[in-house]
Amino acid sequence: MTPTPATLDNAPLAQLKGVGPSMVQRLARLGLHTLPDLLFHLPLRYQDRTRIMPIGSLRPGNEITIRGEVQLTDIKSGRRRMLLSRIADGSGAITLRFFYFSAAQRASLARGCWVQCFGEVRAGPSGLEMVHPEYHLIDSAADGPQEETLTPVYPTTEGLRQQTLRKLIGQLLNDPAQLAGCLPELLPAELPAQRQMPTLHEAILYVHRPPADASLRELEEGIHPAQQRLAFEELLAHQLSLRQLRERQDRHAAPPLRATHTLQRPFLDNLGFQLTSAQQRVLNEISHDLARPQPMQRLVQGDVGCGKTVIAALAALQALEAGFQIAIMAPTELLAEQHRHNFSQWLEPLGMTPYWLSGKRKGKAREQTLAAIGDGSARLTVGTQALFQEGVEFHNLGLVIIDEQHRFGVHQRLALREKGARDGRYPHQLIMTATPIPRTLAQTAYADLDVSVIDELPPGRIPVDTVVIADDRRDAVVTRVHAACREGRQAYWVCTLIEESETLQCETAQDTAETLHTALPDLRVGLVHGRLKATEKEAMMAHFKAGDIDLLVATTVIEVGVDVPNASLMIIENAERLGLSQLHQLRGRVGRGSAKSSCVLLYKPPLSKTARQRLATLRETNDGFEVARKDLELRGPGELLGTRQTGLLELRIADLQRDQALIPAISQCAGHLLREHPGQVAPLIRRWLGDGLRYGNV
Ligand code: ADP
Ligand code: MG
What we know:
Elements: H1 21-29, H2 35-39, E1 45-47, E2 63-76, E3 82-88, E4 93-98, H3 103-108, E5 114-124, E6 127-131, E7 134-138, E8 151-153, H4 162-173, H5 176-182, H6 191-194, H7 200-208, H8 216-221, H9 225-250, H10 264-271, H11 277-290, E9 297-302, H12 308-321, E10 325-329, H13 333-347, E11 355-357, H14 363-375, E12 380-383, E13 397-403, H15 410-419, E14 428-433, H16 439-445, E15 450-454, E16 465-470, H17 474-486, E17 490-494, H18 502-519, E18 525-528, H19 534-546, E19 551-554, E20 567-572, H20 580-587, E21 598-603, H21 609-620, H22 624-635, H23 637-641, H24 663-676, H25 678-689
Parallel strand pairs: 4-6, 9-14, 9-15, 10-12, 10-13, 11-12, 13-14, 16-21, 17-19, 17-20, 18-19, 20-21
Antiparallel strand pairs: 1-8, 2-3, 2-5, 3-4, 5-6, 5-7
Helix pairs in contact: 7-9, 9-24, 9-25, 11-12, 20-22, 21-22, 24-25
């Protein structure tokens, strides 16, 4: 390695010319504190101010520079006063439109003057125009400032002009010694050459000042080698931070929970079916982890209906056999209730009763539960996030099971881990998700977890037959529901809404239930939504499960976990508005029994091309991994992982979808750095994630 110049890692921005205390504050709002921070503040996009375009060649949407002679400047009065100035360059004419202007401005744009303008061209009421362009007066058609490089547009904040940011970053770029001090190369020296990547120094210079002939298309798509070099490093930093976190976890102690099979065996005997070989394999992995004196951190992925809950139960039994407490957490009350119900059925024959804790459990009942959790008499507790709130102290928590993990972010996962720790011992963690994440994404998003995959469905499952139908053929769908229910089948009617408002969603479900009730008076119609009391929801689900209800109208509260094998028809409204994985998840509520099941996706026409494609994916495949892959392609990882997960994936330049191909090399590089150059790890993480985002500190 070349001798490193004096490092400017922590050099404050106040060192720059023009940065006083108030500027320091404004920059801090963008998370910029040090000189290197400023260099890693990367452009969102670029403008081309290197060329003057003939006015006659302009098209709406162009963002360009033009020069022209003022032909006429006038104030137009009316509902809104504005200044209009007509300029021409021989090839054509265009209007400049200003809503805010001064008398001096009006006077300066006098007939016969030359101006140079930069702005976006749009189609106006009388031909092309620019609204509030940047402009200068120039002496002649051949005069005026011209940029030599493309102009970066940065993310900024109120009170901080693009111009100011450009100048500050420019100061650093113009000073070779400072620049070198800010950009120590942290990747292994041979890597850039091996992968034919530019050096960090070259990449940073390029992205802040792309030459006039750079490909705007490449830059806009983020695929220029300079951007890819930075994306590589950014994803590497994320991966390192998670792996480091994992290593730290591995140094913690956990109670070894050895299987004695005293509970597992009778449980399996009563189950009424054999585990699939995928379930057996994953169970072995879990069982092995639990017996170790380090906390298990395992994610079990498996498509809806593959039988994750049984595996969770077997893990719980192993912990019970070893004499430790178990907490099972689900993201919604409804799902938690479902688990409580299942676990009661499984545990009661073994002489145990699960405890229950949700946010709605108050007063005396809550106190009693807390006391039982505290003295250890609550061996297994099912609940929502309330399980890990203030005031809940476990006696000897050995295992935490989190279902449907995509609803919880990495921070919450870590907070849970801390919460369960006692006397320096941490509980094991088992996380279950039915949103299968493509491997490359999992490697980045879940680099701190071991991943098991249940890649097989129980035998005899018949794929759900999915059809896509326009909402104006609703009557035909209602008739179909009627016929199915008359044959003794049960159906779900799922109401979804555009707005995130739970109230509106519930009202819609109520209206729909009434309409269907009127249309189908001989059917027993039930209704379940998020605003019902826990006991009401539970009662409604129990009725449905018992077959006392034919048609259950529901909001997306039934998205996860609900298990009613006799239900074999599902109608989903506004399907075009939901994510593919969510639709797949919902659809997974049917097809759980031996009857052929169907799912009707209702949409409001007209469908956009992407929407049509997305719905077609569901018609064509029943494989959750395939659905997730398509979803990732069409909507990006933020949506797939759920909004709460995005904290982890707030990437500056990388894009998990676009840059997937880099991930295997990044994983390899991360391993190499951790082994051979551990000193580079912390600076890399600090460079890209800053100090605020340290998962390890949680
Ligand atoms: P998931 O949580 O993965 O969506 P569940 O655990 O709810 O799936 O299982 C779905 C249904 O399949 C349940 O009714 C469960 O009892 C049943 N099941 C699980 N494993 C098997 C198996 N190996 N053979 C037959 N049925 C199974
Ligand atoms: Mg489940």
